[in-house]
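Look at one such:
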Amino acid sequence: MNAVRRTINELSEAIQRIVFNTEFVALNGFLQRINPALKVTGILLLVVFVSLVRDTGKLFIFCFVSFLLAVFSRIPLGFFVKRVLLFVPLFTAFIALPSIFSFVTPGDSILTVFGLHITKQGVNGAATLILRVTASVGLTSLIPLTTKWTDVVYALKKLFVPSSAIVTLLISYRYIFSLIRSAEEMYLARLSRQIKPGLGSHYKALGGKTAIFMRRSMQLSENIYLAFLSRGYDPSTLSGYPRIEVSSSIFGFVWILLIAAAGVFVVL
């Protein structure tokens, strides 16, 4: 059951590290000084551009742009590379690996490994997928790294996102931490009542604990929503949007030029 304990602890630490990481938000970098609504819109447009590009050279440039934006936003490049490359892109590369062989993607053979032919078309398709995922993950990762959660919510409201969707995001944001904390407390409570827990007893209690945990999660979601309402929450009255300063307007103008240049680059 050590695996269960490690999984719960590492999941909790990972989520808190991702969402509560405000170390780079307070820095005076490029993306930090752009209006949140403009920033979110621009990054979403860049992701759309990435999805439309099929040339590996252009996709590599978009990957480079994401790293360049991280550097200009004063995010350590080593930290950003680990965050972007060590998860989704590596998993995507593992998934795309079989497509480079001729039995999946027929085409011109460029290399033979253990009797298996690697085709030019397969390598190009796999590289396109990996670069597209890397660029998309790199660009979207810049939003939580350079924007406070409250600013993201206000940005979504400025972009006319439905209030129901904003309420769902706010409740999920609070719910996920309460749910993981509840799972940790349940496991610790059981562990503290056993002198020498055996593997059999762990598996025997797993089914019952899972049912209790699901019931608690449903009750917790309702309690959180009622807590929002009891404190006078109304999605139509969201206020406190960051004031736009002159310097932010200048950086915003540069940001708009960058997005426009990216659009022209995709069309060419």
In short: The chain has ten helices and two strands. The chain has a mean pLDDT of 77.
